Amino acid sequence: MPGSICDVLPAAAALLGVASAGDGLGVADWVGQVDQVDRVAVVLVDGMGWHLLPELAGDAPLLASVATGGAGRLDQLVCTFPSTTPTSLVSLGTGAPPGEHGILGFTLNIPGTDRVLNHIRWRDDPPHTQWQPLPTWFERLSWAGVSTRAVLPEWFIGSGLTEAAYRGAQFVPTRGGEDYAQRIVEELRAAPGLVYGYAADLDTAAHVFGIGSDQWHAAATGVDLLLTRLVQALPQSAALLVTADHGGLNVPANARVDLDTDPRLMAGVRVVAGEPRVRYLHTEPGATADVLATWAEVLGGWAEVRSRAEAVATGMFGPMNPRHLPRIGDVVITCTHPAAVLATGHEPPETARLIGFHGGATAAEMAIPLIVFSG
């Protein structure tokens, strides 16, 4: 079985000598001379799925070299389910699966209300320590006396998601147009410890223009330049771990269902959450069985339609804290084909115009790389 995104920060902590951390990925075995490593950079490239690496390689000389064994070490990991950014970032930060940390999707119904929380737009309601109660590895490192810094765009600072995933880190804000690679290098050189960075452009291009588009390939070039500069500037006592939060796939126009334009699909549904590849349907009292039957009939072979209990029983969310159960819909729709369930009456209009998607449990969405470079 491949390792998980949950294992990345514990491995980094182990490199930095934190006794409670376990290196289940064997990173230290490859880095060697671990006693000389006093600083580690972890960079997450949003949307850089394992299955996309061959297509990326044509625009990314460093990643091409990694793929052929010429640079670094490449391993395959999996992200957590749903394969979506908020879930993965908090799984990375806490080292725990979604059933434990509670960030179980891109959007979630707040139990006891009809409100839907968009984790990207989340600020302070609900409070991040209540909605995501687990300690992060940034906190654990700080408690062990290790400096942790997260170099992030300034508009990320103070958001609920940033706090839920990275709390405990010292936040280093960056502005648009700033030399992001240089900021990470400066932090890495300034003091021992962990430095975290995040790159969004590849995922944005996949969503808006599609995987394989000219814009996506241009973003791949940008990612490769960022990583190349980090590798070239890596101090001798440092290691660089590069991973991703999910992969992705393109969804054609004829494989999209809009629940807000089909009265059959909204019958008995009280709240719609999740995202186009994984929908959570919270039903009216007594309507769950009818909703299950209707959705299974309408979607045919495009998706798995399960009750909450059935979905949890698969283990896809990992061990489940009972307090988080109500955040999952009474009915869970997981697309298995390159398809999407739109909700044009519940979500911003730009969602329906996207080309690239993720969130499901297919290998194209779940498989991610771990690339390790040593100074």
Automatic annotation (TrEMBL):
Gene3D superfamilies: Alkaline Phosphatase, subunit A (3.40.720.10). It comes from the Bacteria. One of its GO terms (molecular function) is hydrolase activity. Transmembrane segments: none annotated. InterPro entries: Alkaline_phosphatase_core_sf (IPR017850), Phosphodiest/P_Trfase (IPR002591). This is Alkaline phosphatase family protein. It comes from Mycobacterium decipiens.
